[in-house]
Task: structure prediction
Amino acid sequence: MRLSTRGHYGLKAMFDLAQHYGTEPIPLKSVAERQNLSEHYLEQLIARLRKAGLVKSVRGAQGGYILAREPEKIKVGDIIRALEGPIAPVECVKEVDPKECDQADYCISRTVWARVRDSIAEVLDSISLADMCRDAEKIHQTREL
Result:
């Protein structure tokens, strides 16, 4: 299973917003510059994240984007699902609306893919944006030594 740039870049943008949580709204231009992302592409990703209820927009001269919830309450899995859709290594084991398969009752590989899906979901749902911020701080502190 391979994530697209939507999931990768969207997670980077959400991480950036989490690092600035509790401050003023962050303009997308600032996020794009810090994370080395296309501002135009980031606008598309943020629209999806806003629709999923993960970010809020603030209009005006000092406007920008903020997380809709505390970083501790936003999981990586929430972000990936909002941008990539249900987690599934193959169509027949999607989390939501799995594709019907006439071999489902006796397909041995289906159980393997379901276990892979569950493992991926478990990991993604166990990591919050706050966890990522703490990990980044540890890395930053290690590099300063």
